[in-house]
Structure formats: structure tokens, C-alpha cells
Write a structure and sequence with these properties.
The protein is of the alpha+beta class. The protein is 37% helix and 15% strand. The chain contains twelve helices and 15 strands.
């Protein structure tokens, strides 16, 4: 009877905290974002130009949209479609209770897990859809009436953002017409893409069965001493993502693996071994790989000497983003303009969406408006991600990134390195691909605990 009473208290406490966090984080989409019209914008390897003869900035509040040159409106629209098409994973509430706790929300503590999910989602999008894919309904996101959008301001903000960048508001009837036209013209390739679009999002659903959902990631985190409600750092999340992909049983995911760099070193032979490992079916075939590199961009504060390298990384089409942020807040960095980073913010509390139902609403998984932050404010601890489809792609990427590391480094040593051979060749314990009795080896546990205690101020 006493235990039942305690459970009820925990449930009430959880509901109260959910209400508080929902109010606390509802401001996320309210702030304005400005883009210079005279500097290129990079988003995960793609470059967009908003250049005009008139100096100034583009604002998301619609205050200066009448001054925008029509000549650049197409490029602005392409940028918007591209950005909105990225998968946005935020705080959620009222999802199934997390095992071993009374929590039904990750508000206030799950932001780094969410940014890790966004990075992995981008890797999966490259794998199944390619970098050129954009969601056909991206520009209709602001017309959503989905119950999962809890703030009325979202519609107003996305509408003003559209107005500020396209120079005119498109009436709702045109949006519906566009949607109908897309359906009529939908060919087999578009149908296939939409199937994968939904499937990728479903893998991140907030339910115990979702392969990369919060519930599963927390289970893997327990092996490193983490529990639901704890803070997670970018390096710990990198290892959790690797385990999640490793343990995924969906046949569609058997052609993908994840490698996490050891002590800022990528051992090329270890990566190739992962790519050439057998599928669960026993069929020999090369796998695509997502390479995650936990790094520090300085001591207590980010060293601005690393800015050009970070910009160079985000200029690569096979970059899947950066898990980072500023102290106490984790962001998913996906691009830049000048010395500011473009990011998606997980600190917005939305209602649980059941992704197991047919035609579940997609709108709340796509961010209507980008955010910008000065590089100087970035916390030095982060995890950089790359996607390589083949061994040849990996070899090409390692050469390209090595040149970038050497040319941008003002220090004696680069931020991280690619070396030939296996980690065992350098007297480091190599991590086995599969372990039957435990998800993390003893060496991994020690490494993860070190990351947990020494990493940086809470992300």
C-alpha cells in the first residue's frame, strides 16, 4: 500500500514537472532569427546565397520582407525546404512510462539524447533518401493543425518566417492545391521516399519498441551508469547511439554500422572491418558507416581558432551534423553563416505522437524555423558525425578531412586524426563488434564513466 502511494506521488510530481517544463520551454520558437543577405548560408554541405545589392538582414518576424529581391526568393525557398526537411526531435510529454522510473517526459534532462537522435536521423536520411531529398510538404508545415503542437504561436511564427523570406504570403488554398498536385504527380520513387521518411521517424518514436527511441537509448545508457533523468554528454551519447544501431534488429538497418573514435583517433582498419562485417543474414556485403568523433574545441571555453575547421566540416555533404550546444543546453548544429552556427533546438516540449499508427502526423517532427548562435558561445565538448556509404567513400573522406585538419590547425596537434591500422596495433584495447553478455565491455565502461565525470558543464 505504501509503495502504491509513493508511485502516485511520483506520477503527480511528474505531471507537475511536465506542466512546468511545457511553460518553461514554450519560448523556443518565439525568438527572431536574422540572416545576412550578403553572406552564403551552409546547411549540411549545401550552400545557399541570399545576396542582394541592398545591405541588411532577413528577419523571421516579417518586418523587412518587402525589401527582398525576387531574384533570390527561389534560393531562399530552397533553403527553407531543405532545413524544414531535416528531422527535428524535441522534448516530449505524456509518452509511455520509462522503465524503472515514473517519468513520462524528458523535459529538462533529455536534450543531448534528442540532439544525438537528430544526428543519427540525418545519417539515416543520407543512407535511405540521399542528400538531395526534401519533404514535398515542407513549406506546408505552418498550416498544421496537429494536436502535438501545443503553442498557438508556432503557426504565427512559421507564417511570418515564410513571409519574411519569400516576400509574400501564400494563401492556404494554394498550399492545399500544391499538396493535391504533389499527390497526383507522385511516382513510385516519391512513394518509396515517403515510406522511408515515415519509417525513419518511427525508429525514433517515444515508445519502448522503437529502435532508437528515448526508452531504448536510456536502457543502453544504464550500462554506463546513467539512468532516466540524468544528464548525458555528447561523448556518452555517441557510444549509446553505436550500441543502439548495433542492436537494431530491423532488416533495413543491417546495412549500417556506427564507429566511435577512440581518444580523438579514427583507426582506419577498425572502420573498414566494421564496414565489411557479415550481415545478420550471413550475407557478406559492405555496410555504410556513421563515424562519430567526440572532441573538445578548447579548455574551459571554445577556442576560436577551431571556427574555420567547424565551418569546413559543416560544408561537407557527408557531414551529419554536430552534437553540441552551450553550457546546460544541447543543440544539433547543422550549418553556419559567417561566424554563427545554425542549429535545431530540442528544448521545445511537444505532446507524444504514436508513430505506430498509420499516417501519423509528421509536422511536429520538422522544425519550422532555424536558430543561430555565435560560435564563441559554443561549449567546447561536442561530437562530430560523418556518413560514408562505401569503403571508398570512407577513404576519400579521411583524406579530405585530414587535409582540412592539417590546414586549419594552428596548434602542434590536430583536433583528431585518422591513422592506418587497428587500435590494437597501438596497444589499445579494441572494442568487439558484438558481446553476448554485456552491451559495454569493461574498457568501454571505464571510458564512458570518465566522459561522464570529466566532460564539461551539463549539456
Amino acid at each position: 500500500m505504501e509503495a502504491t502511494g509513493t508511485d502516485e506521488v511520483e506520477k503527480i510530481k511528474s505531471k507537475f514537472m511536465s506542466a512546468w517544463h511545457n511553460m518553461k520551454y514554450s519560448w523556443v520558437l518565439k525568438t527572431k532569427t536574422y540572416f545576412s543577405r550578403n553572406s552564403p548560408v551552409f546547411l549540411l554541405g549545401k550552400c545557399y546565397h541570399f545576396k542582394t545589392d541592398e545591405p541588411g538582414e532577413l528577419s523571421t518576424d516579417g518586418s523587412n520582407f518587402d525589401k527582398i529581391n525576387k531574384e533570390i526568393s527561389g534560393n531562399v525557398e530552397e533553403f527553407r525546404k531543405d532545413f524544414i526537411s531535416r528531422i527535428w526531435l524535441t522534448y516530449r510529454e505524456e509518452f509511455p512510462q520509462i522503465k524503472g522510473s515514473a517519468l513520462t517526459t524528458d523535459c529538462g534532462w533529455g536534450c543531448t539524447l534528442r540532439t544525438g537522435q537528430m544526428l543519427l536521423a540525418q545519417g539515416l536520411m543520407l543512407h535511405f533518401l540521399g542528400r538531395a531529398w526534401v519533404w514535398p510538404n515542407a513549406l506546408d508545415v505552418d498550416n498544421s493543425d496537429s494536436e502535438s503542437w501545443t503553442a498557438h504561436t508556432v503557426k504565427k511564427l512559421t507564417a511570418s518566417f515564410e513571409a519574411s523570406l519569400t516576400a509574400e504570403r501564400e494563401p492556404k488554398i494554394l498550399s492545399n492545391h500544391r499538396r493535391g498536385t504533389l499527390r497526383r504527380k507522385c511516382d513510385e520513387n516519391e512513394m518509396r521516399n515517403e515510406v522511408y521518411h515515415r519509417k525513419i521517424i518511427s525508429w525514433f518514436g517515444d515508445s519502448p519498441l522503437a529502435a532508437f527511441g528515448l526508452h531504448q537509448l536510456i536502457e543502453y545508457g544504464k550500462k554506463s551508469g546513467k539512468i532516466a533523468g540524468d544528464w548525458y554528454g555528447p561523448a556518452v551519447v555517441a557510444h549509446i547511439l553505436r550500441k543502439a544501431v548495433e542492436e537494431a534488429r530491423d532488416p533495413e538497418l543491417q546495412g549500417l554500422t556506427v564507429y566511435v573514435a577512440q581518444d580523438c583517433t579514427v583507426y582506419s582498419s577498425d572502420v573498414v572491418d566494421r564496414q565489411c562485417s557479415l550481415m545478420d543474414s550471413g550475407r557478406a556485403d559492405t555496410k555504410a558507416v556513421i563515424i562519430l568523433v567526440p572532441v573538445r574545441l578548447g579548455g574551459e571555453r571554445t577556442n576560436t581558432d577551431y571556427l574555420e575547421f567547424v565551418k569546413g566540416i559543416l560544408s561537407l555533404e557527408y557531414c551529419v551534423g554536430i552534437i553540441g550546444g552551450k553550457p546546460k543546453q544541447s543543440y544539433y548544429f547543422a550549418g553556419f553563416q559567417d561566424d554563427s552556427l545554425i542549429y535545431m533546438d530540442p528544448h521545445y516540449c511537444q505532446s507524444f505522437v504514436d508513430v505506430s499508427i498509420k499516417d501519423f502526423p509528421l509536422e511536429s517532427f520538422h522544425c519550422p524555423s532555424p536558430k543561430k548562435m555565435s560560435f564563441k558561445k559554443m561549449d567546447p565538448s561536442c561530437t562530430i558525425g560523418f556518413y560514408c556509404r562505401t569503403v571508398q567513400d570512407f577513404e576519400k573522406a579521411s583524406e579530405e578531412i585530414t587535409k582540412m585538419l592539417n590546414s586549419s590547425s594552428k596548434e602542434k596537434y590536430p583536433l583528431f586524426t585518422f591513422v592506418k591500422g587497428h587500435s590494437r596495433d597501438y596497444d589499445f584495447a579494441s572494442s568487439p563488434l558484438h558481446e553476448e553478455n554485456d552491451l559495454f565491455s569493461e574498457d568501454e565502461k571505464k571510458r564512458l564513466k570518465r566522459f561522464s565525470t570529466e566532460e564539461f558543464v551539463l549539456l
